[in-house]
Specification:
The complex is a heterodimer. In chain A, helix 4 links the parallel strand 3 and strand 4. In chain A, helix 3 packs across helix 4. Helices cover 41% and strands 17% of the residues of chain A. Chain A is globular and about 35 Å long. Chain A contains 6 helices and 5 strands. Chain A starts with a helix and ends in an 8-residue tail after the last helix. Chain B is 49% helix and 6% strand. In chain B, the strands form 2 sheets. A 5-stranded parallel β-sheet of chain B has the order 1-9-8-7-6. Chain B is globular, with a radius of gyration of 25 Å. The two termini of chain B are 29 Å apart. The chains are: A alpha/beta, B alpha/beta. At the A-B interface, helix 2, strand 2 and helix 4 of A face helix 5 and helix 19 of B.
Chain lengths: 140, 590
């Protein structure tokens, strides 16, 4: 347990949906790695189920979703649900992309902990993860 | 949907031997100024450097230790004729409409006709986009430009499980010819030109356009427009694909070949720097990788046995226009010179039309900010001005709200008005290539050319762009540049107005366009109705024809036209590609 508490945070950076705009996802992945986290990047065109499976398999503490296609209201909650279906409710899900401000309350209600909008710095994402993503408890 | 992708199972192959890159044209023997006058200019520069410049620097240092363009080209305090003493006007600059076309592809440029004001549009249902097209045409837009939704771009029908949440969101939803009939309803396809931004599934979209033209009574030979169909830049930057690079490029060549024979007014590929730049490339990288993509397509066509002069005049280009005003202008000018020389010296093109680089341009979406969104109108205006001073043939200006969503009608109108103000009020249209002879712009044009040719040489050494893409070379170069840019913004070294400087709190929200899920439901209902009404036998038969062409290497265009005419869906045709060549996947490297 103690070892687990002190472990380096593991973050999955994921691209749900069909859009291929991965500039943001890759920059964030790299910035998180440079900040000392362990980072896994899914690559493009992932379904919510693929992302949830990767999160479980990689035993991550947080999942960062990047989307530009406008499908966030469908796909972000679907990732949260897919995690729940796998019995996972202690992985912090956050995200960013081309997302109207007005959609943030809906996303938060659906279980997305934080949403980063265009212009957010990678430092603000790093700081938020340090403050909000906790190492998951060891699975019994 | 079986079988290992042919592309990935192939062992790495050494690249085809390439002809050497055209030589750099530097070091002219004759100069604009005589030796004596040059000496006098150099002495004057020295005295100014020791005098006025040194005096002022002693009191007020420069704002930065060194200045450079966004691509890293060093920028001196001031340039003078001595810096340009090697310039050869007739060889490197010359006259518009004449080799090497630095000053523009036509002799009269905007004195003859302004650029085409072509606003990219597409969202929701085909009915929604049809209405937006008619709105834009009524407001003076002179060409159509179609954006497709993600499922159409990736080759999935609206009812595919991967399409959920995406139908009609980033562009218009299209699954069958029925959708195309609605999209272009009431728009005379013989009178407008249409641009279609679609790549991996472009062969299907072009086939549908041919079919819808026929329904309107317009033969394919009379259809004018452009289809993007630039797959190399998809693997490099935009990442929308179906099959791997080699079969994808084969289908691009199929389209070029088909259009060379049957659609003389159609541009079968729009070789695009836009997405490469938006993914983070510098202007030099955009220029180099895009031209290298173009050279690869030409090589592939020539390897297939086509005469370069039979198709080269229909290749068109698409540049991004970013913030660094003069560097962008230089990029347009350098691109024409490099292309003309490469086509003539490397491929032996003889027809003048084969040497012309004609281009569309779009202001840089990535430069827009969510903060203080009205500032985006100003950014876009400056970028549009650079495209015009660079001599673009066609232009899209972004709308102020595009960091949030697809643009509203009001926002699009301001963007279109921006172009009209430049075209009709600013006076920049009155002379051809107004910045020629500017010491700085000519210096930048030469530097852009030199640096792009360096990259092109490296890509040639790898065996060409297809090989370089398979090795991930341009992808890595772009990711490095993107990360560097982000670090510069975060360190404050690069100012973004309203983002890391000159911030305000609590921007008033702007109105946004919303696409609701009823579009997806309606699209799925129509798709299912089409499937129920069509002849299942004819669909099966024609899809077998598509598969046969994929397998025997013949041109896929004719059988795809037959298939879409009997309402085979876009997804069904693309499933054939997936079956024959395998679904392409990229590793998640960053």
């Amino acid at each position: 347990m103690s070892q687990n508490k002190g472990r380096t945070l593991r973050i999955l950076v994921a691209k749900p949906g069909l859009d291929g705009h991965d500039r943001g996802a890759k920059i964030v992945a790299r910035a998180l790695r440079d900040a000392g986290f362990e980072v896994i990047y899914t690559g493009l065109h992932q379904t919510p189920e693929m992302i949830a499976a990767a999160a479980v398999q990689e035993d991550v503490d947080g999942v960062g979703l990047s989307i530009m296609s406008g499908a966030h209201l469908t796909l972000f909650p679907a990732v949260v649900d897919a995690l729940k279906e796998r019995g996972v409710d202690d992985v912090t899900v956050f995200g960013g992309g081309i997302i109207p401000q007005d959609d943030i309350p809906t996303l938060k209600k659906a279980g997305v902990s934080e949403v980063f909008l265009p212009g957010a710095t990678t430092q603000s994402i790093v700081d938020w993860i340090r403050g909000n993503v906790k190492p998951r408890a060891e699975v019994a | 949907m079986t079988g290992k992708p042919a592309v990935e199972s192939k062992p790495p192959v050494p690249g085809k031997p390439r002809r050497p890159t055209p030589p750099m044209h530097g070091g002219a023997d004759h100069a604009v100024y005589g030796r004596e006058e040059l000496q006098a200019i150099l002495s004057e520069r020295e005295s100014w450097t020791a005098g006025e410049l040194a005096d002022l620097l002693a009191r007020t240092p420069r704002r930065r230790k060194s200045f450079q363009t966004d691509s890293g080209i060093p920028v001196p305090d001031v340039l003078d004729p001595a810096h340009r003493s090697q310039e050869d006007f007739r060889r490197d600059i010359g006259y518009p409409g004449r080799y090497p076309f630095t000053r523009g592809p036509q002799a009269t440029m905007y004195r003859g006709r302004l650029w085409t004001m072509r606003q990219f549009a597409g969202f929701g249902s085909p009915e929604d986009t049809n209405a937006r097209f008619k709105y834009l045409l009524a407001h003076g837009m002179t060409g159509l430009s179609t954006a497709f939704d993600m499922p159409a771009l990736m080759g999935y029908d609206a009812d595919h499980s991967l399409s959920r949440g995406e139908v009609g969101k980033e562009g218009v939803a299209i699954s069958t010819l029925r959708d195309f009939e609605i999209l272009f309803d009431g728009i005379p396809l013989g009178d407008v030109t249409t641009s279609m931004t679609i790549n991996a599934s472009a062969v299907v979209a072009l086939a549908m356009y041919v079919a819808v033209g026929e329904k309107q009574g317009i033969p394919r030979a009379r259809l004018g427009g452009t289809i993007q169909a630039d797959m190399l830049k998809e693997f490099i930057a935009q990442k929308e694909w179906i099959v791997g690079p080699r079969p994808a490029v084969k289908m691009v060549v199929d389209m070029i070949e088909f259009c060379a024979k049957e659609m003389p007014r159609w541009n079968p590929v729009s070789i695009s720097g836009y997405h490469i730049r938006e993914a983070g490339a510098t202007a030099v990288q955009e220029l180099a990788f895009t031209l290298a993509d173009g050279l690869e397509y030409v090589q592939e066509c020539v390897d297939r046995g086509m005469d370069v002069d039979s198709f080269a005049q229909r290749l068109s280009f698409f540049w991004d226009v970013h913030n660094d005003f003069f560097e962008e202008i230089a990029k347009f000018r350098a691109s024409r010179r490099i292309w003309a020389r490469a086509l003539r010296e490397r491929f032996g093109a003889r027809r003048k039309e084969s040497l012309l680089l004609r281009t569309h341009a779009q202001t840089a979406g990535v430069s827009l900010t969510a903060q203080q969104p009205y500032n985006n109108v100003v950014r876009t205006a400056l970028q549009a001005m650079a495209a015009v001073l660079g001599g673009t043939q066609s232009l899209h200006t972004n709308s102020l709200d595009e960091t949030y969503a697809l643009p509203t009608e009001d926002a699009v109108r301001i963007a279109l008005r921006t172009q009209q103000i430049i075209g009709y009020e600013s006076g920049v249209d009155r002379v051809v290539d107004p910045l020629a002879g500017s010491y700085y712009v000519e210096y930048l044009t030469d530097e852009m050319e030199r640096r792009a040719l360096d990259y092109i040489r490296r890509i040639d050494e790898m065996g060409g762009m297809l090989r370089a893409v398979e090795e991930g070379f341009p992808q890595r170069e772009i990711a490095e540049s993107a990360y560097r840019w982000q670090r510069e913004v975060e360190s404050g070294d690069r100012v973004v107005v309203g983002v890391n400087e000159f911030r305000t709190e609590g921007d008033a929200p702007i109105p946004l366009l919303r696409i609701d899920e009823s579009v997806a439901r309606a699209q799925v209902a129509r798709l299912q109705a089409v499937r129920a009404e069509r002849s299942a036998d004819r669909v099966k038969e024609t899809l077998a024809g598509v598969e046969k062409a994929c397998r025997d290497g013949s041109n896929v265009m004719p059988p795809i036209i037959e298939a879409v005419k009997v309402y085979a869906t876009l997804g069904e045709v693309c499933d054939v590609f997936r079956k024959v060549w395998g679904q392409y996947r990229e590793d998640g490297v960053f």
